[in-house]
Design a protein that fits this description.
Chain lengths: 135, 135, 135, 135
């Protein structure tokens, strides 16, 4: 498995009038965690798209354990448990500044060839950077 | 069960560079569907909050079957299958303009007394409007 | 000049912890007003893009007179004062449910040929529907 | 005057189908720049609110010189030119990774006493950290 950590600072515009982070904002936090997770391996999602592969989301799940609040520096642990095939799954655990687990999520994405609009294998650049974690 | 329908027009700012609705925007569509679902019964979420009850989200799940695109008038079928206790669950099916099912989702929310910060029963106004659907 | 009206219902996710609509959400309301303004003339922005013309924003200005709040049905008066050349300007006045003017805005956009990435004239379909208003 | 710099990484969800950052997302970037600008002086906006002072926006202006794109690490230069009274103005210049100026903006905010809902002076904590820059 491949495990990484990212931090995200809660923006004012991401709170709602309950005083919590709006439940719809977590998907964006997941996106940041996924992208930074890959960047830590030297891979950018931008470069994947530049190779003609897009990664639409198939499934997304979220458990809201406790609210996140304005200006908190959230720590997101992002894990790829299984070697990606034509699909890749990311798991997330989000911790607040008191190091309390406040949120759990997961996202399933599919690799799609932009030309043919058909599912495809991950780009070689991704396979090679992930390989050491899935022996 | 209680079933309702709402339409949502996709905004330009909700698309991403893939040309699809960003996966994180569906949670906002769900919110619109829930709120309009209750409004069709004469109940506003605003009035629930005014009674001192907030409804934070506990769980959210999404299946992305096909992309939604800019300017499409999406039809959201929103269903409450079980009589709400201290929790309430909403199921959604989203159809595009060709009447194709493109998305399935569900959200579990909890009723919380704003003063005590403790889970509570639904407000009586909600129980009374929902009662006919759960005999 | 061409004047139109649209309504927008404030979503929960658009509020912030001040209990107001987040100041960054008005740009999206403007977008809805522009798009519906054209639709009332039988023209969709989608069809403009389909003709190979995109309309990036050059300038945006906002005056926040009074806050908008959750669930309010805002009324947006949208005005095109001058016949569009390679640029088009939209003015907005937003009224709350008490019919109080709470917000003023304006957006300047440019017509750009997607192929050449150069500024261009408005599409003929737009010129023809707007012509009656700028004699 | 007080000048600071912040960086913001463009998120996928902030792009639109034009392939640019959606014009409505810049207000959120401004917010990040303002908040980090104060944090560099040891002051958090969170602590200002905790003192019972909120800072609603009165005016916002944006010039879009060139598009920002996905994954770019934008550099935002944020300047307070005048010593704040009951109002405070922030100017922004946004540079892309090629160090090209792509965007100019400004935001005028007002200090409001949350209890009385009336305009008020900046909190003393802010006055003291800003004082050295406005002699």
């Amino acid at each position: 498995m491949y495990r990484s950590e990212t931090t995200v600072r809660v923006r004012y515009g991401e709170t709602d009038q309950m005083g919590y982070v709006y439940y719809g904002c977590y998907a964006m936090y997941y996106e940041v965690a996924r992208v930074e997770s890959l960047r830590q391996l030297g891979l950018t999602y931008k470069s994947i798209e530049a190779q003609g592969i897009i990664m639409p989301v198939l499934e997304n799940k979220s458990k809201y354990i406790a609210p996140a609040r304005y200006d908190e520096l959230l720590r997101i642990v992002c894990v790829i448990r299984e070697k990606p095939g034509i699909r890749i799954k990311f798991d997330y655990e989000i911790f607040n500044e008191e190091n309390k687990l406040i949120h759990i999520g997961e996202t399933l994405l599919v690799f799609v060839d932009k030309q043919s609009s058909k599912p495809c294998k991950p780009p070689e650049t991704m396979e090679s950077v992930l390989q050491p974690f899935f022996k």
